[in-house]
Amino acid sequence: MLHRLIYSDWDHPPECMAFEAPYEEVLTQIQNLLPGILARKDEALASPATLPSGYWEDCVRLYLLTPALVNIALNFKVCVEQGLPLHPTYYFEITEATRFQAKYPERMVHHTNAFFLESIEVARALYGLEADAVARLDQFVRDLPEVVAGFIYTSTKDKYTWRASNPAKIVDLADHIRKRVSPTLIVGAAHGSILSGLVLANLLKTPLYFIRFSMFKRNDPAPVIAPSDRSFLEAYQAGPVLLFDEDVAKGTTLTKFTETLQPYFRESYTASVLRHALSPCAPDFVGRAWHD
Asked: Which CATH number fits domain 159-290: 3.40.50.300, 3.20.20.80, 3.30.70.660, 3.40.50.2020?
């Protein structure tokens, strides 16, 4: 898996974490990086000292670019289902839906949901460095809806998201979970949980889904749940299901996320890669505690 090829300073986000680019361009960058990383992955695992620094830099870039697949696909789905305008550079707030009341055909709703689900599976294939990852990515690009090709993806140097992306911490979390439960599904609070959620799901070999709940960057008053989400989650109502956020400081996001999603399942647990030692929110599973 790609997480085994990531070596970095986990206290300070790398400069390449901050970037802005159209979705289509991000996908092209991934297409350019992936073959070279795949070609030498066995060598990288067996004899890491023999590879140039550029190889490891490419691995970090792929690690940071891949969440864009799901991020944009999820926003596309939310806009279509909530009746928001599709704009390449401006993300409308959920609370603006009543102002615009855009209406999209039902076939478009179905298509955006299929596109969203495929984005998760392709992103998992990339992080898994699977043999068919190049072919799956190429097909994903060929099927890319023209309307989202120019959507701008923005990544910022968020130190907490970066620290929660540390593979060692995600592995610790996966180990804790395995000792107690075998989840049938992971539901991540997006967008922050996308990167670590993809890695965690691959480690646990568990289905993965994301619900948008961006309290601070998108001002979401509550998790954004559409009929398609309820239909998807219904298949997992028996559980056990993991409700996941990448880090817990005050714990407001995970607490509200859990209050909303928990009633959908008969058995559920909360999980986070990082938890502040003084947080009033105590997830059932935590990778590491932090104190600063």
From this structure: 3.40.50.2020
